[in-house]
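User: Please fill in residues for this 228-position structure.
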């Protein structure tokens, strides 16, 4: 087999692997194409952290990434570190500690769990992953905050049976978060109920949903205000 043919096969396998990896997060994004968005965003966040002094960081998934949080809170830079498709299995603790390069955050808000529920993650695995993440982040911030997981709706491409199964997992995950936060020395920030509708597609929040979500995030970091 020639070198050129081997190279073409390797490229085909790589493209297939990327397609499989993205399949789970593209359900609510028709006509999704494979691109370098995730990598590019991580590079940009690395540059952002390099010039942020004692920032407040919101670490989450596409719900976080699509939010329009203010750029600062009580004189601290507020950094949106949302990464599309992220879950508790994404090892975000290792990634964030690496890009911080020893710099300490004023606060880190962890806003994860939606993708775990959508992907059908088991309760024990979710709790173990979340506990591991908080353990990795504990030494990197003065304040650690665990944000509640928003509900999903029968809307857009979200069918009723899938919504019901996902909500059973979200309810169970949310019930476990206060104890996980307490054990890690973190603060639990619950999400107040959101009116219906509060999403654009069953999962991603609309203006009304973000009004509740943003307020919960800002309330969560308020405990870190006045430090440093």
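Assistant: Residues filled in for all 228 positions:
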């Amino acid at each position: 087999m020639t070198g050129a043919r081997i190279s073409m096969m390797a490229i085909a396998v790589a493209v297939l692997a990327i397609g499989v990896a993205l399949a789970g997060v593209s359900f609510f994004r028709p006509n999704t194409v494979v691109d370098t968005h995730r990598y590019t965003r991580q590079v940009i966040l690395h540059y952002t952290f390099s010039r942020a002094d004692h920032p407040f960081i919101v670490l989450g998934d596409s719900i976080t990434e699509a939010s329009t949080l203010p750029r600062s809170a009580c004189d601290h830079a507020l950094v949106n570190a949302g990464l599309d498709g992220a879950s508790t299995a994404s090892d975000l603790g290792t990634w964030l500690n690496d890009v911080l390069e020893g710099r300490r955050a004023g606060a880190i808000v962890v806003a994860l769990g939606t993708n775990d529920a959508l992907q059908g993650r088991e309760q024990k695995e979710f709790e173990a992953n979340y506990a591991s993440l908080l353990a990795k982040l504990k030494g990197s911030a003065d304040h650690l905050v665990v944000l509640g997981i928003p509900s999903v709706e029968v809307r857009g491409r979200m069918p009723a049976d899938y919504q019901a199964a996902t909500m059973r997992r979200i309810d169970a995950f949310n019930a476990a978060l206060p104890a996980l936060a307490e054990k890690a020395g973190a603060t639990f920030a619950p999400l107040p109920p959101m009116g219906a509708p509060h999403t654009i597609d069953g999962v991603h929040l609309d203006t009304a949903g973000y009004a509740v979500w943003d307020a919960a995030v800002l309330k969560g970091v308020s405990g870190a205000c006045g430090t440093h």
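For context: Confidence is low (pLDDT under 50) at residues 1-27.
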